[in-house]
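User: what does the whole thing look like in 3D?
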Amino acid sequence: MSSVDMRLACKPADYKSDIKPIWCPGCGDYHVLMSFTRAFAELGLPSEDIVVVSGIGCSSRIPAYTNCYGFHGVHGRSLALAAGLKVTRPELTVVVASGDGDGYSIGGNHFLHACRRNIDMTYVVMDNHIYGMTKGQPSPTTEPEFDTALSPGGTGLRPFHPLVIALASGANFIARCFSGEPNETAAVLVEAIRHPGFSFVEILSPCVTFRPDEKEWKSLVHTAPVAATNDPAKAARRIMTDDGFNIGILYRGDRRPYRPAIGAASVDLSELEKDFEL
Amino acid sequence: MDERDLEERDSVSVAIVGSGGAGALTAGNFLLEAASAAGWQGLLSRTVGPQIRGGEAAALVRLATGRIECLPDHFDLLIGIDWLNAHRFGAEIGVGPNSLVISDPRGGEPPPAIAAAGARVVELPMKEMAKAIPNGRPNMIALGVAARLLGLGVDVVSALLEKRLADKGQAAIDASRAGINAGHEAAARFDFAPRLAAPRPAGTRRWLVSGNEATALGAVRGGVRFAAAYPITPATEILEWLAPNLPKAGGVLLQAEDELAAINMIIGASFGGTPALTATSGPGLSLMIEALGLATAAEIPVVVIDVMRGGPSTGIPTKSEQADLNIAVYGCHGDAPHLVVAPQSIGDCLFTTQWATYLAEALQSPAIVLSDQFIGQARAAIERPADVAFIGQRARATDIAGAYKRYAIAVNGISPMAIPGTRGGQYTADGLTHTERGIPTSGERDHNAQLDKRRDKLAQFNFGAHWATIEGAGDLAVVTWGSLTGTAREAIGRAAEDGVAASLVAPRLLSPVQPERFAAALAGKQRVLVVEQSHGAQFHHYLRAHYELPSDVRVLNRAGPLPIRASEIHRAITQWR
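Assistant: Here's the predicted 3D structure for the full assembly of 855 residues, as structure tokens:
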């Protein structure tokens, strides 16, 4: 079957599981799930050849809601788990789903090294600037003055800038999306998955329960005024100076992905013990 | 010395001491390799401080006519190239009244412990002798001395130089040979009786291998094709052996950013169907524990080598201990049964790691291999270990019709695993309590059913005779584990020569426990001597928790770094009152 025929055969519903999501009504993550299934259908990939890997948190529930293979692992380590999978099974499409707590706080170190390693996978962070599953504690992207039970009066800390960090660490594709625009988000995900190397897609996905103020994001987001650049210096300037609601593909790099050879033995196993023979 | 005064022995030992960089370890390695080329078996343990350069270093070499698996109580010969830092580990290098100590007068005074032991001290100006040779080095003088006194031909050592120093050029070879010759000649005047008896004819091919290298080869033979690595003493050699060799077998090694990443990488690779391994030591194992619970819950086979070192915390990175038993067996939160095995010698590192890989794959469980610094970093000249047929084979779900149940309650607890790419097998592996289909639940019924499944698949498996080493007779059993197995075996052998019978029971399989097999091994025993290198007697408490012991139990336990000697076990056996 040609890829064109496959694509005709695929509908977003083919990528949805029969498990009902456990998310609050109005959660942005419903739309992200919709974007996932639309992107997979657009790519025409057999669902058994896709693996969605996640950590812990509201957003990390997403694998089981797809009809793909999934791994819902421990908190913060999804990128490492995905690296081991993709390096040994390069023919699979690997998408990693995370949130701002899982990805930027407990998983922060893995984020740096995944960007640097540049393995061909797509990293989607659903950023709502709050820990939702544990009921409203500040995350690395929470505004300094935001008041919570764990940070009375606010953290006073400057928020983490994930896109700048991704760029500095070597991510090969960087985009920002808004969950309320599932078609646009799906289109970006298609490009992210197709782009060789490590693609980072930050999706602003409101938490209407602990951050009702984020309902305003709908009116704040706007399409990036210029096309993606492949110049890291230009991308850095744009990302660092934009208002945080600039939506679209912001950087497309051309670094070669890390893909070690795997599969065929070049020697008989008995050769390996020659080192030890007297 | 007159040939008639020589005393032929089955084993002799030498320690070569110098400050870091003096070349003591190089000399020890040459000595071991030359002796093995001549047909003897042997063991080289290095003892070093934490410094990379400029600390203390000693090569502890024991050569023998047959199998040798532990260091001696006392070294027959101790050569001090210098004594600058020797006081730091004086106690680890035992000398006795019959020992000969050769000391360079320009290398400082031998530590007081040596004089106190009554050893004979003679002087040899090794540094000065080396200076007389262009590019000469005192460690080669020491090597020549040791070769002469132990009865090794200078030609064997010279032949080895050609091989090992080929890339350093002829000048280096000539300088080393001149040094060895000078040492060999100078040693003629020393009065040293022990001589190694002629080697027994070797039955098979011979290997020179470290425990860490044997571990790595065992993993590859068992089917491991992916490794994730974070460097840590004393496990790094496993990773450094795998890095170039795994690709030859069609596999790959990734260097991870930390141990958390390493364990999760291997879980990801194994989820994809590739048998996978990481190697670490105590601090790394501590970091990996959360994900080991995930691998247990999600039933993902992985192999984790823990080359134990002194703990807790950073502890003594370069010295051996057996104090990670508790974390390996009980470290996970929740009820998380998994495999724990321990190799018993350098050669056994190959078997046990290969077996662990096989067991992990067969049982879809993490397997922790508890090696230690002593067997991990020591090198041995041994007979080539026999080939074994253990190759990891995972029950795979391939032709899937209808709703796939990844965690189906099967008779033996082992449910066939679909790997990504298999149509109809899509499921989400999860650390959350799940149903047979893998769907998260917080229900009592599924929680208990899956806990039972994971317990029973281990409990019902037939591990066969490999579960333990059981040898000897008598109403006294020495119960030990890991690298102390060889030491206990030697002590029991000596006791037998004294007419005191004792048996050896050393479990290779530490988890799941085997109560029936253990009871059978102890049938008729009135007395048990537990031997372990742990300050808190962890193994003793583990035995008490899981097994029936007779009323007369004694425990010989000590923290590292001072190894438990065969003489101590021998004394405990023969002087039991």
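In plain terms: Chain A has a mean pLDDT of 95. Chain A touches chain B through 53 residues (CB under 8 Å).
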